[in-house]
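User: Hi! I have a protein structure encoded as tokens and I'd like to know what sequence might fold into it. I'm fairly new to this, so please keep things simple.
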């Protein structure tokens, strides 16, 4: 069993603040921390930590700078059990993100892509037994299209986390086996308002538009998913949120692990939802201690 995550790696600067600043406003923060980030990097680490004790192989293809953040990124991936032989290195600085974390667990962020824009998609190898290739929208569309085409030629399935939201492009859309979006991304793809988005209607329309399995996540309001014809709803676990930063990436990493293990989409979303719930309710410094067994135990409570 093998998963290849192709995506961005960022050096994150995370500031705790009472609110998002208004235009021209300066706010006093209460703490700052530095972390490994990027949707692709976070998803690979999440998958790696959940598969340390089984035979699932997790690999990362990305591009980082020849700098200290790039060195740190490789170390973090390796420590999570992720193979890094397809992580490219360039002179352009490693990408970075500045995030503001709010007291209620919400956040806002700005990314600077840096070295991620230099990824050479043609140099990435996708060979059997790769079962799933995971993509996001932090890489250029052309790179995602190239990787998706390679994946299909190699007999692998393609999961796209369409975040940040942007038009998919017909070449990429036609290669997808699974599309995962949150409320905002679903609304953008459908030209609707996120505030009034109906999750069931959105998942049905996206499945009709793209002809693949679709998951629309709604935060603490649960999620809608569709594999074949009927849409199903899964409520969120009731947990005390410490921070929602990175929850979507924890969900994607866990979902792909479940699918690679041969689980159905319904079982996969239960497992992924549990992983995300544990992520948001666990102190940041303890998240690396979340195990597959812990996630499976919580997931079982949503299947009763």
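Assistant: Happy to help. Inverse folding works backwards from shape to sequence: for each of the 304 positions I chose a residue that suits the local structure. Here it is:
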């Amino acid at each position: 069993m093998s998963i290849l995550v192709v995506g961005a790696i960022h050096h994150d600067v995370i500031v705790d603040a009472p609110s998002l600043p208004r235009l021209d406003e300066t706010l006093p923060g209460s703490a700052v921390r530095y972390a490994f980030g990027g949707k692709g990097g976070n998803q690979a680490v999440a998958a790696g930590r959940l598969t340390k004790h089984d035979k699932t192989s997790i690999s990362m293809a990305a591009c980082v700078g020849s700098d200290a953040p790039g060195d740190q990124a490789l170390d973090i991936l390796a420590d999570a059990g992720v193979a890094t032989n397809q992580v490219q290195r360039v002179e352009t600085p490693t990408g970075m993100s500045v995030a503001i974390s709010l007291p209620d667990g919400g956040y806002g962020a700005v990314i600077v892509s840096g070295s991620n824009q230099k990824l050479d998609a043609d140099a990435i190898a996708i060979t059997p037994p790769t079962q799933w290739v995971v993509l996001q929208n932090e890489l250029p569309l052309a790179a995602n299209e190239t990787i998706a085409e390679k994946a299909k030629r190699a007999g692998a399935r393609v999961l796209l986390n369409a975040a940040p939201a942007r038009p998919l492009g017909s070449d990429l859309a036609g290669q997808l086996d699974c599309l995962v979006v949150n409320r905002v991304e679903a609304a953008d793809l459908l030209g609707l308002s996120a505030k009034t988005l109906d999750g069931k209607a959105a998942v049905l329309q996206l499945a009709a538009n793209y002809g693949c399995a679709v998951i629309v996540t709604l935060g603490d309001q649960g999620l809608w998913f569709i594999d074949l014809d009927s849409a199903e709803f899964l409520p969120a676990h009731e947990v005390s949120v410490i921070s929602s930063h990175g929850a979507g990436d924890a969900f994607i990493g866990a979902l792909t692990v479940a699918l690679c293990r041969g689980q159905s989409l319904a079982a996969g979303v239960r497992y992924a939802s549990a992983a995300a719930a544990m992520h948001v309710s666990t102190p940041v410094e303890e998240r690396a201690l979340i195990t597959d067994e812990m996630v499976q135990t919580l997931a079982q409570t949503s299947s009763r």
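A useful reference point when you look it over: The chain has one domain: 2-18+31-300. Feel free to ask if any position seems puzzling.
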